[in-house]
Request: fold
Amino acid sequence: MSDRDVIAVQCGAATDTGLRRRLNEDSYIAASPVFLVADGMGGHHAGEVASAAVIDEFAHLVGRPSVSVDDLRATFDRARARVEQLPVGAGAGAGTTLSGVAIADIDGDGYWLTINVGDSRTYRLSDGELEQISVDHSVVQELIDRGELDIAQASRDTRRNVITRAIGAGSDADPDYWLIPAEEGDRILVCSDGLPTELDVARIDAILRAEAHPQAAATRLVHEAVLHGGRDNVTALVVDAISVGDASCRPDGRGTQPVVPDEDDELNADTRPRTPYPTGGSR
Reply:
């Protein structure tokens, strides 16, 4: 790890069209400091164009030692503008989800700067616990939030394929952002909804623990999702924190203090907006 690398990582990536779709509308980037998955919507090449346009915009961040909150927000705004400007016959009206992490440097400490819009997902395996960081923007998640569905009902609900936020597709909603303090040994999983549609959280957890190398883990996750039905495109990125900048200055050893000005109450360290729906969420 160089003096400028607050999180040194090793990553793996895999994607598959699945068994029922003709096109793979997922796009991804897995190059430091950004690790993102976009799941296109629209069909007839439109979703593929939208997701690729978004990932292409975020690719301009590759090679930097870290990304700031302002960097990520500005890139998101440019990506959304590109999708909204797609011409008729080449993606007009299409949309895409986006989820994943970027490496952030907060006063010399490494953080996972997480972004999510839609129902692609970001998880973290840390200290022996797998946690879903992102929260699905879906009708089913909103019903859970209101107490109208429990988890068992949600997994069978026909509305689980309806999302409430996207980039494009008539949506102008903003993404969720979080700052998560990184720890050496963290394993991040970013995936399109085709993965949790086919594999439950327990199986995802087991694979992440069983495969030591991130590429082996990503490949196995996608392979098993296809074997279990492959009803949608499926993409998985696995990112391991090999080393993290010195955390000795953090007051509690993990750095859960707010890391943005008080007037911005949208983004605090180690916070979650609500309990995520752990399974389902396909389109």
Summary: The chain has seven helices and twelve strands. The longest helix spans residues 69-84.
